[in-house]
Amino acid sequence: MNNPLLIPIIGPKEVGKSTFTTQFIFSQFIEEYDPTIESYRKQIEIDNEILIVELYDFYQNDYLIYGFTKEVYKQSHGFVLIYSIIDRNSFNRLQDYLKEIYLIKNSDDFPIIIVGNKNDVENLRQVKKEEGEEFAFKNGCPFFEISTKARYNIDETIITLLREIRKYPFDSKSNSNSKIKFKFKFKIKFKIKFKF
Predict the structure, then answer these.
(1) Which of 44, 63, 71, 143 could lock onto 136 through a cystine, CB 3.0 to 4.6 A?
(2) Per-residue DSSP letters for 54-112?
(3) Is 43 helix (H, G, I), strand (E, B) or coil?
(4) Could you give the domains of the chain?
(5) For each successive 10 residues of the chain (196 residues), what is the average pLDDT?
(6) CA–CA distance from 122 to each of 87, 107, 127, 152 (Å)?
(7) Is 161 helix (H, G, I), strand (E, B) or coil?
(8) What's the pLDDT score for residue 91?
């Protein structure tokens, strides 16, 4: 695959989508940020193959202009679907996000990885690890619990998804270019505070 592999980071607000993205790209935990739509690229070597990954960090999926969301979904090669283990409601919404992906991709067999974030605050846990594993298993998806704050299982999540993407039989006419063409312009604002 010579073109960038487009991977949206999907989930409700405040589950750690932006911190997941910036930890993978920059190895930095962002304490404060202005929610926006952002995309980042990174080159990575997996199994002796150089791949270019483009992560789309969505603020809140149901907040976005649907036409833009649909176009990104259609051209995507895989998805990271994130919930927070300390927020039961974010876990309960996973099925709705999956249904939307399946509808737009016209397939219920597509590279998706389920991720439970914030396992560094075990005392606040509302969703058992076994629940996340069972949900992922029922939907045929790999599963990881991660901590974006501690940078735990971040790279492993993306590497696992990329291996799933490499196995998937993409139509040569689809997903040929990850450049998203749309008529809307978004002003990018990204105020960050790095924590060292």
Answers:
(1) 143
(2) EEEE-S-GGGS-HHHHHHHHHH-S-EEEEEETT-HHHHHTHHHHHHHHHHHHT-S-S-E
(3) strand
(4) 5-167 (3.40.50.300)
(5) 86 92 86 64 93 83 59 92 98 95 91 97 97 97 97 96 91 51 39 38
(6) 12, 35, 10, 14
(7) helix
(8) 98
